[in-house]
């Protein structure tokens, strides 16, 4: 009597060899992207467990006992301890999850265990997007999703999908078609589902979470940062792009100098403390800004940095996003950037800032450590005494950078721990932007002129393919601001007196003679034209992905739906959403119900069809409804010289169709059937 295949999973049935291989491939595919973020010893653990599992299936080894499992878990915990991952953190939790994912292989004996592994793989696939939201990560996730679903099909139908090339292709096509049928519903959920903030956040390790400009500056910090070609942010301008020498992207204001390090204030604040300090003592005051000149409207998409610093053209008159505006004209996020963040702003660079300087701000801008750098203090007082005005004094100081043998370099000599300004101005005279900005501000303060250091980025690389500006870490820069009566804060960049190419053409042009641009990297496409164009084309696609997919936040969703449906009401939303769901359901009915399914043949049936065609060419045609055994005996009688081969082929075919044990692997029998067909042909 003919039986139908059950769709339920038999928990006591043994997992087939093909199902085991599929699971091992799945585990490697899911764990591979985590290697660049987590301890690399996880891959050898997976390989070890995979080899052991294959040996168990083939009968070469025994299943691990309880003691072995406890030992493996203990080794994993020891490895986790020596990895130095802080607790609690995302890396720590994911590493434990991956260890369990790998060790689960050793006890996966039945389909139920296999389904647990698959569901865990689905979860890990989603977790990976916490680390990377790039378009490559999205494509890799889609591929992994197809394989995960295919493994689920193989586990639930082990006899239908055996481990051979033909059935593998069929399984992957089936999995892909199932996921494509879900695509309309997925798009609908993406477009209309509320964009909710995360319910909780796990801290990332500082070595991975924080990149870019820090909240303090020592002479070598920005020079080290300039050896990285990592992307900081991208900018799209609403109108004409400003000149390169006007692109000063303000990030932080450094007021306090302790003799070696510049920092925001004398005390170090955590983010929440810093925000409270700004709101209480250094709030944004629009009446201190007199808007002048031409507006520059732009959108900046910031990469994940683990820090709250945003970089804008100063001053910003309008800004849209979850940001905090500060009295020193900076814009910062209210929380650390753990994902790509889009901010829209309008700036007026020619505006007047702080016509009336507040006493607290003046005190911050005149602070100097006592009894340090006596030679610089003496020089500043002499130049101020010889000057007719503050503007004349500033020009005399700048002329010193231009006429003295100062040299712009990414390899400055060490200045020691005391009198670093004196050692730079009078001894080494070799430095990077941080040296020039810091020494200039020191001389201004020594002469009684309020001044401060500003850190951020200068310039950027124009992407002609995407019509946007890419600002990299090597564009990091430091400059100075001085305050003058009736003029407010003025930007002064003493680096331009020593290396004008740094501002006009970028760091690569400024470092051309020294040859120190990205010297720590083995390969960089920045100086090869065709590679540069290819890189920009790829980056343009990536920017579009981040801008229109990852940038689809609550505001973008509201604007899109409003442009699509007009004024949104509850009644209109209910009817629209219900109509779309009915349309998707009707589409599924057409694809799955009304449309007749194409008849699919098993591998042995396809081989048998070729067998019948081969005999038909010799005049032996199978009659409709004739049994394979009767047809084989008639063909053997008509072709006595091939009788033995025909009967052997028929016996193999009948065994595959009717006498094969359900736990028996038919891959070898299919290979035998193919060889017998070749002999007949």
Structure description:
The protein folds into 3 domains: 17-181, no CATH class; 212-533, no CATH class; 603-680, no CATH class. The protein has 26 helices and 20 strands. It is elongated, with a radius of gyration of 35 Å.
**Number of helices in the DSSP assignment:** 26
Strand content: 5-15%
| Helical content (DSSP H or I, runs of 4+) | 40-55%
Main sheet record: 6 strands, antiparallel
Number of strands: 20
What is the arithmetic mean of pLDDT?
Answer: 80
Tell me the domain tally. 3
Class by helix and strand content? alpha+beta
Distance between the termini: 35 Å
Radius of gyration: 35 Å
Arrangement of strands in the largest sheet: 9-12-7-2-18-17
Gross morphology: elongated
Low-confidence stretches: 1-9, 205-209
Give a short overview.
The protein has 26 helices and 20 strands.
Strands, helices and their partners?
Elements: H1 17-31, H2 42-58, H3 66-82, H4 90-103, H5 111-128, H6 135-156, H7 165-181, H8 183-192, H9 206-209, E1 216-217, H10 221-225, E2 231-237, E3 248-254, E4 256-257, E5 262-263, H11 271-281, E6 289-290, E7 296-302, E8 312-313, E9 316-320, E10 323-325, E11 331-333, E12 341-347, E13 352-353, H12 359-365, H13 374-385, H14 390-403, E14 407-408, H15 420-428, E15 430-431, H16 433-446, E16 451-458, E17 461-463, E18 468-472, E19 476-484, E20 488-492, H17 495-498, H18 500-504, H19 507-510, H20 529-550, H21 554-565, H22 570-594, H23 603-616, H24 628-638, H25 643-659, H26 667-680
Parallel strand pairs: 14-15
Antiparallel strand pairs: 1-5, 2-7, 2-18, 3-8, 3-16, 4-5, 6-13, 7-12, 9-12, 10-11, 16-19, 17-18, 19-20
